[in-house]
Write a structure and sequence with these properties.
alpha+beta; single chain; 7 strands; 4 helices; two-stranded antiparallel sheet
Amino acid sequence: MAPSVTHVSGTVTGDVEVRFTDSGVAVCRFRLTQTPTQWDAAAQQWRDGTPIRYVCTAWRDLARNATESLTDGVDILVTGRITEIRDNAVYLSVDDLGISLRQRIAYTETSLPSPAAAAPISPTASVASVAAPAAAQPSGAGTGGRSAGQTGSPPAWWEQRRTTGWHHPAARTPADAVSPNVGP
């Protein structure tokens, strides 16, 4: 009987260790802590439950990618198979994992923002003067060479928000709410 697949979300605890087998296959190991929440009816509030500790093992390309991507304190989602339970920890053989976007933004190699996103904004510049250069850019400028209608390019509101800062929510129209780039 094959072990059942489980899905876990938690926080990476400590550093990711990577080793290589004699044949050159990468294997990494990391610890994950999941803290479930429980409703306390008497106090009418949520309380943290007892933390569940996992020891996760990944192989091959997943091990290499996890080693480069994971650091202590990052929230992740893991799909894997329970291999054993011992020493007050659940051992998982990881099939797939991803960074949780609940409290952070994650960029992929193809979705990295342009260098202009890191440019400092003058405190004396008005929103209109900062947003004006973005509108005057030629097609594909500031989007990594992609044209505005090409799959993978950000919607217009993204470019405006990125150049004016993220600290104030922008009002979006229903047309901006759905990117025209969704789909094959």
